Amino acid sequence: MCGGVAGYVGAQFLGPRIGRFDKDTPVDEFAPHNVGLVCLGTIVLWFGWFGFNGGSALGATGDNQELIQIVCMNTCISAACAGLTAFILKMLVDKVESVAAICNGLLAGLVGITAGCDAANVWWSAGIGIMSGFIYVFFSKWLESTSVNFGLFAMDRTDDPLEAVTVHGACGFWGACASGLVRYFVQGDDISVLTGCVFGTCVIVLWTLVTSYLIFLPLWYLGYLRVDKLVEI
What we know:
Helix content: 55-70%
CATH superfamily: Ammonium transporter AmtB like domains
CATH architecture: Orthogonal Bundle
Shape: globular
CATH class: Mainly Alpha
Strand content: under 5%
Number of strands: 2
Strand order of the largest sheet: 1-2
CATH topology: Ammonium transporter fold
């Protein structure tokens, strides 16, 4: 989630690629140019996530033997549900069968389940994945189309080529909050666990916004963030 929020701040300072939001730019001009590599990278990440989440059990034998199975099962279910949800939504909303949507949807589901993968059950894992798919599709559209000005703070349309702000930032926020939900409703933990997850998630977002701003501001002022226009084109 920190990476997604920091990426958002960086994207705001950097600004969109030349021609990204021009009305006369062809729709496919900035589409992913190598879907094969996108799929390969997604498979590598999905496979690695079993080690990432499963390894958090700190062992595959003894008392952890059952836990690691639950963690890996929940991880796979959430990813699959999110990828399928994202694909269907893209097909219904944009009238296109997008392989990239499946790939980023899978990653959104992986991000969404990570914090609560040890506490969720099958149905909660599927629900978290489905919600992650919805967040991925509609939050990315909102970022690309929304430009607001709050006076002291202005937010331009966000050019996020990898959709990392949505996948890691928005779905990471949802996943951290969902961790509290599953621990309260599935494991029966105290309500303070849920409120603690929500409060802690908000604190992380605010902390990352402030520190990222302090890092990117001098880089932007000194002109170190972007290459020359001729080089970019």
